[in-house]
Design goal:
Blueprint (H helix, E strand, L loop, with lengths): L1 H14 L8 H37 L3 H48 L4 H8 L6 H43 L2 E3 L2 E3 L4 H21 L2 H24 L1 H6 L3 H53 L5 H18 L1 H4 L1 H29 L5 E5 L4 E9 L5 E5 L2 E3 L4 E5 L6 H9 L5 E8 L4 E4 L8 E2 H6 L9 H10 L12 E2 L1 H4 L2 H15 L3 E5 L7 H14 L4 E5 L11 E8 L2 E8 L6
Helix pairs in contact: 1-12, 2-3, 2-5, 2-10, 3-5, 4-12, 5-10, 5-12, 6-9, 6-10, 7-9, 7-12, 9-10, 15-17
């Protein structure tokens, strides 16, 4: 019961927001239509059950007029059934895509909100493979929630309708054993109930492990797909290192988990299918076993026997709803668990950013970036970088140096507002524009013009301006390819990517430009030329660079060193007399 309550609570948390959203009127109308059609289909089933009794009685009595009339009734009911079934499917699919579109938009918005996606990775939460949760799990949740929910409603209404019919048929065809009649009110109903309870209990006992197995299968499948994608993204490095054998072994190991878990699902499904199939086949003959003695004792006609079998089947199917959909139910619960975990991970990342115990990034009225009592930590709480009353000045070029692992890049992440671990404050001038340019810049797949303009729209800068900056950073060969679509992080060398990143910086012209070894793949003359270009094109921009080359000192007015102080590193100023070469 605790599992049922927690599952239903999770379904409510995930599903209910859609029906309170801006799309609630359309979604509610579609859902009401689907439910109304389902109830109409149940009503048609009841009418067909009554028709079955009359039709077979007419056959037994050789009543031609009654036979022809009942054929006409059946044609009308069957036609209405087909029309309603078609429109129910259509409206159901319409509701699915609207619901999925809203949930996808919501999850993307929350996942991508203020670097939540990055903090979720830092926390190491169980919400792995967010691509699977957004692309696959939302689709499965909407599809299975509607299918199971409407199916459950149909079963309850069918149960209520056919129990009344079956109870009345129990009185018309009393229980007859060995020629003797026994007065057992509603014995057909009790027979269906006992049969269904027995089947449901055994199905739960046999199939309960499928819930966890389905959860693990989805996780292993997503992990295998993710690692295949990693191989594709890093194919050059793998080829250079001749790492194909190692990658094949690693991928085979991950696929081995898929196969091993699948075998477990196969074994459990085989047992479940053996029981449910036997259960379904026995359900066909069981009502005839109960009703046949009354038929052969001439207590009921053939139509009454067949109507009894039909009503019994409807009651038994309604009571056995969970038996018939058990595997779908197991998959649905695993989908719910994954989406619920994803939502909790997003909430945790959001809370982490807003926590008073995390690094606070605030707006200030000054024109400097001030670090006050700042302590940057690793996610496990280990101290990394300390800064007290330290500032990064406007219009000044600052070089940050220090040993590898000292936390230089992490300090930049904290200033950018995406690294929450630690305490203290970082005051940034109000309305100031900051740009972080890492060693490996990111370019979305698409036209080159859009890749350079990112994160702005492709038409945010004129083609002439983009051609100008491409020529300026030494990439004239890319000028004719502005409209070409490609995976630019794979098409270009690392040096060319770094030049393209600097072209983006020239377009954006931020007030503070942070270069995290953003020219490390270029030779020293090319690096020097680009720093002179930045100084010339962005004279009002404060440049803060991380680098290890001694030649960089000539392009900066201030040198900041991260020096070890006990367990952590501290920022220490070393003024320089920079001369622009």
């Amino acid at each position: 019961m605790n599992n049922i309550r927690s599952t239903l609570a999770a379904v409510w948390r995930i599903a209910f927001p859609y029906f309170r959203s801006e799309d609630k009127l359309a979604g509610g109308a579609l859902l009401a239509s689907v439910i109304a059609i389902e109830l109409s289909l149940v009503a048609i089933d009841v009418l067909l059950n009554q028709w079955r009794g009359r039709f077979y009685n007419d056959l037994q009595a050789r009543d031609w007029d009654g036979f022809v009339w009942e054929l006409g009734v059946f044609t009308a009911l069957a036609g209405l059934n087909v029309a309603l079934s078609i429109y129910q499917l259509y409206l159901n699919q319409w509701l699915q895509i609207r619901w999925r579109r809203w949930m996808t938009s919501r999850y993307l918005g929350e996942w991508m909100h203020k670097a939540n996606h990055y903090r979720m990775q830092l926390q190491g939460d169980a919400a792995d493979n967010p691509d699977q949760r957004i692309a696959d799990d939302i689709r499965l949740f909407v599809d299975q929630t509607l299918g199971i929910g409407v199916g459950l409603l149909s079963s309850l209404v069918s149960l209520a309708s056919f129990v009344v019919i079956l109870w009345g048929l129990s009185a018309e065809s009393p229980l007859t054993l060995f020629g003797a009649e026994f007065l057992v009110p509603g014995y057909l109903v009790w027979g269906a109930l006992i049969y269904a309870v027995f089947g449901t209990a055994l199905t739960q006992w046999i199939g309960s492990p499928l819930v966890n197995l389905s959860f693990e299968q989805q996780r292993y499948e997503a992990d295998f797909r993710f690692n295949l994608m990693r191989v594709r993204e890093n194919s050059e490095q793998i080829a250079l290192l001749k790492g194909e054998s190692a990658e094949r072994l690693r991928l085979s190991e991950r696929f081995g988990r898929v196969v091993e878990n699948w075998y477990a699902i196969m074994s459990r499904t085989k047992r479940l299918t053996a029981f449910t199939s036997s259960y379904s086949q026995a359900a066909v003959i069981f009502p005839f076993i109960l009703g046949a003695p009354a038929y052969f004792a001439n207590k009921v006609q053939l139509g009454g026997l067949l109507q009894t079998a039909s009503a019994f089947g409807s009651v038994q199917n309604s009571l056995s709803f969970f038996v018939s959909i058990y595997r779908s139910l197991a998959e649905w619960r695993s989908v719910i668990a994954r989406l619920d975990g994803f939502e909790m991970s997003i909430a945790s990342a959001t809370d982490l950013a807003a926590s008073p115990d995390s690094i606070a990034v605030v707006a200030s009225a000054g024109d400097e970036i001030d670090l006050e009592k700042l302590l940057v930590q690793l996610p496990n709480g280990t101290p990394l970088v300390s800064a007290t009353s330290f500032n990064l000045r406007a219009h000044e070029r600052t070089l940050v140096t220090g040993p590898s692992g000292a936390g230089k890049s992490t300090l930049f992440r904290a200033i950018a507002g995406i690294w929450p671990f630690g305490h203290g404050s970082i005051a940034i001038p109000a309305n100031a524009t900051l740009m972080m340019l890492p060693q490996l810049p990111y370019f979305p797949i698409g036209p080159l013009q859009a890749a350079i303009a990112y994160p702005a729209e492709a038409d945010a800068y004129s083609p002439d301006r983009i051609r100008e900056v491409l020529n300026a950073v030494g990439l004239p060969r890319l000028v004719p390819r502005l409209d070409e679509e490609a995976h630019w992080n794979r098409m270009l060398s690392l040096g060319e990517q770094q030049r393209l990143g600097l072209a983006r910086a020239l377009l954006i012209a931020p007030q503070y430009l942070f270069l995290d070894e953003a020219t490390a793949s270029l030779d020293e003359p090319a690096e020097a030329a680009l720093y002179r270009l930045i100084e010339q094109e962005l004279p009002a921009t404060a440049i803060i660079s991380i680098g290890h080359r001694s030649t960089l000192a000539a392009f900066h007015q201030r040198n900041v060193v991260l020096a070890r102080d006990g367990e952590m590193f501290t920022l220490q100023n070393q003024e320089t007399d920079a001369v622009s070469p």
